[in-house]
Amino acid sequence: MYIQNLSLHSFRNYEHASLDLNPGLNLFVGDNAQGKTNLLEAIYVLSLSKSYRAVRETELIRHGAPRAMVKAQVAKMATLDLAVVISEAEKKRLLVNEKSTTANSFVGCLNTVLFIPDSLQLVKGSPGDRRRFLDVQICQIDPIYRSNLLKCQRVIRQRNSLLKEAWDNRAQVSQLPPWDHQLAALGSKIIFRRQEVVQTLQDFSQRAHQTISDEREELGLLYQPFFATEDDVLAQKHYSQGELEGILVEKIKELRGEEVRRGYTLVGPQRDDLIFRINHTDLKKFGSQGQQRTAVLAYILAELELMYQETGEYPVVLLDDVTSELDWKRQMLLLSILNEKAQTIVTTTNLGGFSTEMKERARVFQIEQGRILQ
Ligand SMILES: Nc1ncnc2c1ncn2[C@@H]1O[C@H](COP(=O)(O)OP(=O)(O)OP(=O)(O)O)[C@@H](O)[C@H]1O
Ligand SMILES: [Mg+2]
Q1: Does 13 sit in the ligand 1 pocket, CB within 6 Å?
Q2: In testing the pocket of ligand 1, which one of 28, 34, 318 has its CB within 8 Å of the most ligand atoms?
Q3: What is the pLDDT of residues 42-74, one digit of tens each?
Q4: Neighbour-count burial for 323-356, b at 16+ CB within 10 Å, e otherwise
Q5: In the predicted model, is pLDDT for residue 12 greater than 90?
């Protein structure tokens, strides 16, 4: 799939911008603080229905304007018109072909894979960073997963507040069983799906990684449910959903006292992790920066293949400021792989690092103070 045209109205520092995109490579060049990241953020909002960096949604509205709107025409099997309207006074609106729709049916219309300087947190960051990466991807290809995930997050919040109250008032413990039941049911579905997806990502990222590292190193990607020992993880033990539900029920019993003592939920997919290994050693602990970057790139490329496998279409790839985090060789390799497959939207402060061939193939735009010039 690819974005044919895009328009922004009162979005961040854009008053009004409208542009046609190339189905292949698009390069956006501009100095700092001109609106490069804002543009990618607008596309991301069209994809996931919300921003990855705004704390409050109204931040997206241009200062002084009543509402922000982002629209795009997306070419896939059929052409789709997508729009998001965010306003100070009213609820956010998501539109597909001019009809209002729910976030659950909106997400998945335009699939994206995002690479920002912060993406290196995938290896270096916290388990929460890694789970977010996984969830953002799975939500785009599986609306049932998305809805289970949101439900599970509500159940955990509810349990947490009961557990906190139970510290002073033991009677609250009697309120827990229905929430325990839901946690086991939803949690097992989430862990099961993530385990499945990681298995697929592992196969694709291994192949991508061999290309990038000239077959010198082997990447391993393993899912670690909260209850699993290191040996279980290394043995790549695969759990059925029934097994997972049984384990969650057991763990809820086993950890009841500990949960009440700590005042929050210790059981569930919110405590899982994703483990990266290079040649059988832990990449987070022992990998060099270069190895970590290569692994993140391989993972991004694997996400692309996963989406293709699940939906029959490659997603749109958004690369923010790649020049700041990837050396020239990795950038060129990434772009050459992507260019054969997916629409790619790249921002940079400086075109110097791009080959003439790349620049000729691409559509090049300048961004200056919230204006886009071709
Ligand atoms: N709601 C808003 N209304 C008006 N301007 C905004 C709003 N939100 C952000 N901006 C402005 O947008 C500009 C930053 O844009 P952006 O983050 O896209 O820059 P950039 O081109 O990616 O820069 P860099 O190269 O430093 O990453 C800032 O000048 C900021 O003040
Ligand atoms: Mg930026």
Answers
A1: yes
A2: 34
A3: 999 999 999 999 999 999 999 999 999 999 999
A4: bebbeeebbebbbebbbeebbbbbbbeeeeebee
A5: yes
Cβ neighbour number for residue 203 with a 10 Å cutoff? 15
State if residue 195 touches ligand 1 by the CB under 6 angstroms criterion.
no
pTM, two decimals, is: 0.95
Q: Which of 8, 10, 13 to mutate to test the pocket of ligand 1 (most atoms within 8 A of CB)?
A: 13
DSSP letters, 277-309, are EETTEEHHHH--HHHHHHHHHHHHHHHHHHHHH
- pLDDT at residue 79 in the model: 95
Give 318-370 pLDDT, tens digit per residue.
999 877 777 878 888 888 888 889 999 999 998 888 888 888 999 999 999 99
- For the chain, domains (ranges, CATH) are 2-20+36-319 (1.20.1050.90)
Which ligand 1 atom minimizes the distance to the CA of 349?
Answer: 25
Average pLDDT over residues 209-227: 90
Residues measured by CB to lie within 5 Å of ligand 2, the ion: 36-37
